[in-house]
Amino acid sequence: MRVLVIGGGGREHAIIWKLRKDDPALEIFCAPGNAGIGKIARNVPIEAADVKNLARFAAENGVDLTVVGPEAALAAGVADEFAAKGLEIFGPTKAAARLESSKDFAKRFMRKYCVPTAGFETFDRARDALSYIREQKFPLVVKADGLAAGKGVAVCQSEAEAAGVLREVMEGRKFGDSGEKVVIEEFLEGKEATYMVFSDGETFLPMAGAHDYKRVFDGDLGGNTGGMGSVSPSPRFTAEIERTCLERIVRPTFDGLRREDILYAGVLYFELMLTPDGPKVIEYNCRFGDPETEAVIPRLKTGLLPVFTACARKRLGGIGLEWSDEASVCVMLASGGDPGEYKKGLEISGLGADFGEKTQVFHAGTAEKDGKTVTDGGRVLCVTALGKDAREARERAYEAARRIGFDGAHYRRDIGSEE
Ligand code: AMP
Ligand code: GLY
Fold first, then answer.
1. What confidence tens digit (pLDDT) does each residue in 338-377 have?
2. What pLDDT was estimated at residue 339?
3. Counting ligands in written order, which one lies closest to the CA of residue 382?
4. Residue 126 confidence (pLDDT)
5. For a substitution probing ligand 2, which of 74, 151, 192, 194 has the most ligand atoms within 8 Å of its CB?
6. Torsion angles phi and psi, residue 233, rounded to 5
7. What is the dihedral of CA 392, 398, 401, 402, to 10 degrees?
């Protein structure tokens, strides 16, 4: 069997690591991959959103199943292109992926199907948006409608700040076409959690809960990043909250998708705010989370390939997932300067060490240069460890993180400490 994984971050490394662990003989390609992925799969130099060349590669190389990591590939219609060529793929169509690629679409969908979420209004003219915020309470959240690499959301403390963001996004076109519309929404108070759910279009199957750490500095200070770490299980995502989510959020969402005739095959990621009034959806993502996947997947005992295949073939009904009781903590090593400007191409030391079987170093942004592994992104390495509880997992992850280094490397010291 031949599998192609699209993407090249820690999420894709974790997925491939699991596929490889389940079946050492599986042939795995990854486009474009990274230095760590290249050690357990074959990297293919095609970018994730280059859907035509990805489909051509899959057809020419007899790929049996393709698994999509990043949203950019989904929004570019990779699933539609593969389906049109008769190629099997795990990932929703472009129409279904609008749940992530258009916040306005997602919010209207939630409103229509009574999925709890923040109140909102959408604007396509800056003038109207500016007059609307004059009557609002603050903080207030301003979001570019389209994809903006995780940077399109601003929590604004004052009218002046919100007006500045609106001007930058709508008039200054900071995010290009993605900011032609903006969603302005009510600020939700609470802690965040991540609930990822497999779906084949008819049945759904939830994964273990998790939460990630978006702010750059300890204590949730500083700017938003792509994620500085994650844990699974998430102590704040209790069994009772999970039940409420299934009943009020997950089930109504999949019922709504069916009513809209949207066949959703892939992972649907519910980003939740656990508010005093119950869990509410901050947003949907149409893919695995990063870095939540790096914490969740190592806890999965069930083989992953049969789940992907079942989603692609509408046979998820017969499948159950078994999870390890161990806790997982994932610490992200980021480039100096990230989430702002940072250097690439810095040599990484310490990767050859033996960290033990409970610890995995997933590569998020690395490349191979002159036989050396060098940094190649803002998020560089994702150190995940399992332990009998979060404390043990955390100690293991930090012990490994301390042994790895590159110029300017930084990481948060408080991942998993809430436990
Ligand atoms: P998003 O890109 O939608 O995941 O938003 C990025 C971050 O902004 C989230 O992780 C939250 O911390 C914050 N955020 C987004 N929407 C809201 C909201 N309505 N209320 C409070 N915080 C929000
Ligand atoms: N960890 C947040 C995301 O994957 O969007």
1. 988 999 999 999 999 999 999 999 999 999 999 999 999 9
2. 87
3. 2
4. 94
5. 194
6. -70, 165
7. -130
Q: What pLDDT was estimated at residue 238?
A: 97
- Contact, 190 vs 274, CB < 8 A? yes
Q: Would the CB of 289 count as within 6 Å of ligand 2?
A: yes
| pLDDT number for residue 224 | 85
Q: Could you tell me if the CB of 185 is within 6 A of ligand 1?
A: yes
Please give the number of the atom of ligand 2 that sits closest to the Cα of 150.
5
Q: Rounded to the nearest whole angstrom, what is the distance from the C-alpha of residue 409 to the centroid of ligand 2?
A: 21
For residue 18, give the nearest of 324, 230, 373 by alpha carbon: 324
Tokens of 91: 């990932």
Three-state DSSP class for 417?
coil
**CA quadruple 259, 244, 107, 308: dihedral sign:** negative
Residue to probe by mutation, ligand 1, list 282, 284, 286, 292, most atoms within 8 Å of CB: 282
Substitution site in 11, 230, 269, 293 for ligand 2 pocket (most atoms within 8 Å of beta carbon) = 269
CB 244 within 8 A of CB 206: no
Q: Which two tokens stand for residue 60?
A: 């020419």
Task: Give the H/E segment covering residue 182.
Answer: strand 182-186
Among 147, 146, 255, 266, smallest CA distance to 196 is for: 266
Spacing, Cα 213 to ligand 1 middle (Å): 12
Which pLDDT score is estimated for 191? 95
| Distance separating alpha carbons of residues 282 and 226, to the nearest angstrom | 16
**Identity at 141, one-letter amino acid code:** V
Q: What are phi and psi of 321, to 5 degrees?
A: -115, 135
**Residue ranges of the chain whose pLDDT lies below 70:** 419
pLDDT at 181: 95
Could you give the C-alpha distances from 136 to 130, 152, 164, 186, in angstroms and in order? Answer: 10, 20, 15, 9
Residue 326: DSSP 8-state: S
Could you tell me if 275 and 188 are in contact, meaning their C-beta atoms sit under 8 angstroms apart?
yes
Is the separation of the CB atoms in 182 and 143 below 8 Å? yes
Residue in this structure with the two tokens 């916040």, named with its chain if needed: 103
pTM score, two decimals? 0.96
Mean pLDDT of the chain: 96
pLDDT of residue 263: 92
Q: Beta partners for 273?
A: 192, 280
Of the chain, the percentage scoring pLDDT greater than 90 comes to: 96
